[in-house]
Design goal:
Two copies of one chain form a homodimer.
Chain A: E1 2-6, H1 13-23, E2 30-35, E3 39-42, E4 49-52, E5 54-55, E6 64-67, H2 80-92, E7 95-99, H3 102-108, E8 116-117, H4 124-129, E9 133-134, E10 139-142, E11 145-148, H5 153-166, H6 168-177, H7 196-204
Parallel strand pairs in A: 1-2, 1-6, 2-5, 6-7, 7-11, 8-9
Antiparallel strand pairs in A: 3-4, 10-11
Helix pairs in contact in A: 1-5, 5-6
Chain lengths: 210, 210
């Protein structure tokens, strides 16, 4: 099974690497990092670059697509090279998925028209403007389309995807392999759980969100 | 504040990118990916490469060190270039940290002698052989040394580190920024929670663990 993760300038690294870390452990699966042109792509912080090994045109029909989010994708919402690739790929995929604001690209390609979907909590309005029905869940499944919430939700999305592809034992084995037994020092990972002051701070300081 | 994350061949991507995603959002902080020589470094699966931008020698005294794990580090346990860099850096750091089997490198450098520390659950014995006192906790603090358990524990380790550096509000804000409100489909992320069959399967198939 071939999984394609498209990169672009100013993406969010964990959006891509969380699902990679899960899906690369699924037996018989190869994860490919691809882009309009191969080469290094910097994250939105500028502090890290990952390499795309293949051009989009060399992998037109992967079995699974995982679109990561990142502030840089606002510039791609009318990019016909990427959107046309997404549309064609989606016609042939077993699963079409996104993490964080990666769903904005799926929506811009028309793939989420009328479907429930999620994204980073700060991008919900934008997702609705692009034709999806935004819902406040961490992982949203609509047939073969699965969207994940912000950044770290890609891990949960990918473990869910593995469950659907290969069953509970494999999903559980990979969860144990990456020792995903979360224990953050605080319970502040959603708008419902964080203090109003912290939610307001992030709304005013979008640069910290990615 | 300068954070240095050393890369090497056959590291585990999420070990490095989880802490990067957290620490890069800490105001006033720059995360640097460094290596013996700059260039691309492939993960243990061979499916992804990240770039080191600086050689170790150009960043001898970062404020924070985060050592990622990966199957490739067994070949470095007697690598004097990396171990000497770790020893010197540790003399000057505010915080010296690791994720997963990154603690084996800290231990090989003598930094964990007699200290409690953690690692991936499958590497606990090896950590003890190298002079640390292995303990089964997700994040282990010993003065300025913080070690995290397997792979995904780097996120929890880094949020803990942010709390110690900048306080609870900043840790909580970053947690909300990356929407770290975990919801895996199963509760199988530790040896205590997984079924005996899955634990046994992973012990026999180390390639899936990273």
């Amino acid at each position: 099974m071939d999984v394609a993760i498209p990169l672009y300038d100013r993406f969010t690294a964990l959006d891509a690497v969380g699902p990679y870390e899960v899906l690369s452990r699924l037996p018989g699966t190869t994860v490919h990092f691809i882009a309009a042109e191969p080469g290094p792509f910097r994250t939105e912080t500028g502090m890290l670059s990952l390499n795309a090994d293949l051009p989009l045109r060399e992998m037109p029909e992967p079995d699974v697509v995982v679109v990561p989010g990142g502030l840089g994708n606002r510039a791609l919402l009318e990019d016909e090279v990427l959107l046309a690739w997404l549309r064609h790929a989606h016609e042939h995929t077993d699963w079409t998925t996104s993490v964080c604001t990666g769903s904005l690209l799926l929506a811009a390609a028309g793939i989420l028209d009328g479907l429930e979907a999620t994204t980073h909590w700060l991008a919900m309005d934008k997702l609705g403007e692009l034709g999806a029905k935004p819902v406040d869940r961490r992982v949203v499944e609509q047939g073969k389309v699965i969207t994940g919430a912000g950044v770290s939700a890609g891990i949960d999305m990918a473990l869910t995807l593995v469950d659907r592809i290969a069953g509970p034992e494999v999903s559980q084995a990979i969860q144990l392999g990456i020792e995903y037994d979360p224990e953050p020092p605080y319970d502040s990972g959603s708008v419902a759980k964080a203090t109003p002051e912290i939610v307001a701070f992030l709304r005013e300081n979008v640069a910290i969100l990615g």
